[in-house]
Amino acid sequence: MDEYREANRSLWNAWTRINLRSEMYDVEAFAAGHGRDLRPIDRAGPGDVRGKSLLHLQCHFGMDTIRWAGYGATVTGVDFSEEAVTAARALAARMGVPATFVQCDVYDLPRHLTGRFDVVFTSHGVLGWLPDLDRWAQMIAHFLAPGGVFYIVEAHPLLQIFDDRVAEPALRLLYPYFHGREPIREEHPGCYSTPDAPITSVEHIWLHTVSDLINALARAGLRIETFDEPAYHRAIDAHYRLGVLYQELGRWGDARKELQTFLGYWKHADPELRTYQDAQRLLRTLPSSGVPTPAT
Q1: Co-location of 75 and 212 in the same domain
Q2: Domain that includes residue 137, residue range
Q3: Distances, alpha carbon 12 to alpha carbons 58, 60, 156, in Å
Q4: What angle do CA 66, 73, 149 make, to 5 degrees?
Q5: DSSP 3-state assignment of 237?
Q6: How far apart are CA 75 and CA 54, in angstroms?
Q7: For residue 165, is it within any domain?
Q8: Predicted pLDDT at 62
Q9: Taking phi first (over 0 means left), then psi (-120 to 50 degrees means alpha), and beta for anything else, what does residue 55 get?
Q10: Which residues are registered as beta bridge partners of 213?
Q11: Cα separation, 59 vs 85, whole angstroms
Q12: H helices of the chain, where?
C-alpha cells in the first residue's frame, strides 16, 4: 500500500472512533433496532436479495452490510480500516446478525477471500479513495458470480471539482475534471460526521471521470445495463429542512441529528454552498436542552 493510501487508512481508523460516537450514525439506536433503513436508491439495484450472497466493498463499520443481512442476504463486508472491521464484527455479534467481515486493502481481496457472490455492492463516497479503477473493476469481476449484479451508488464527479471553501454561493472550479494520477490533498478541521471533532483531517483523494468508471467496468468484462443520474441531492436537502423544522419545534436532539446527517453527505451530494453554511451555523446554535442560542 502506498503512502497516500496508508495515510488514508490511518485517517479512517481515527474517523471510525469518532463515527462510532456520533449522532449522525447513532449506533446505539441502530443496535436497538431503531436506526434508519437502507436508502431506497441503494436497494433499487440489487432488488430482492433473499437467499443471495452479497459482497459489500468499503463497508466502513458494517451498518449497511448488516442492513442487507436484514433483507435476507448472506453478507460479507470488506474494509481496509482495522478499527472499522473490528467495530463491524462487534456490532454484528451484538445484534446477533450473521455476517463476515474481512480487513484488507480492496485490491488485495483475492488473497484474503474465496468464492463468488450474487451481488457485489458499494456506495457513497468510495471511488475517491481508489487510485486505480481498472484494478478495482477486475477485482469485482473476479468475485461476481455468473449472472450476478454489481451495483454502485456514488456522487457525480462534477460535485468534487468545485471549491467548497468559499463563503459566497457562486460555484468556482478548484480541481480539473480531467486529472492526473496523483491524488489531491485536502485538509480540514473535524470529521464529516462531527464537524467540531478535535481532529485535523488530511485526505488524499483521486478524482475519476464518469468515463473512467464506465470504461474500467467494461474493460473488466462487465455488461453495463443501467446508468442513472438521479437528483439525489434533493433527498439530502430534506435532512436540512427537517433540521430547521425540528429546531423551530424545540426538538434539539432531532434537529442536531438531521443537520449532522446533511453536513456529512453534503460534500459528496449537494453543491448548494449557502445551505451548507446555514446548516453549520444553525447546528452551532443548538443546545442539548433549553432555549436556542441566538445565531450570530
Answers
A1: yes
A2: 3-159+175-191+203-230
A3: 11, 8, 22
A4: 110
A5: helix
A6: 5
A7: no
A8: 97
A9: beta
A10: none
A11: 9
A12: 3-21, 27-31, 40-44, 63-70, 82-95, 133-143, 210-219, 232-249, 252-269, 273-285
Give the CA distances from residue 67 to residues 31, 102, 121, in Å, rounded to whole numbers and listed in that order. 11, 17, 13
Residue 86 confidence (pLDDT): 98
Query: Is 183 exposed, middle or buried, given 0-12, 13-18 or 19+ CB atoms closer than 10 A?
Result: buried
- Is residue 211 in a domain? yes
184-189 and 99-103 beta bridge pairing: unpaired
Residues 249, 133 share a domain: no
Q: What is the pTM of this model?
A: 0.79
Question: Considering its fold, how many domains does the chain have in total?
Answer: 2
Q: Are 225 and 255 contained in the same domain?
A: no
Tell me: do 80 and 129 sit in the same domain. yes
8 Å CB contact between 271 and 35: no
Instruction: Answer whether residue 35 is part of any domain.
Output: yes
Provide the pLDDT for residue 257.
78
Q: Quick one: cell of 156?
A: 457525480
116 lies in some domain: yes
Mean pLDDT by 10 residues, the chain (296 residues): 93 97 92 86 91 98 97 98 98 98 97 98 94 98 97 85 63 80 91 91 94 97 90 60 73 78 59 59 69 42
Secondary structure letter of residue 162 according to DSSP = B
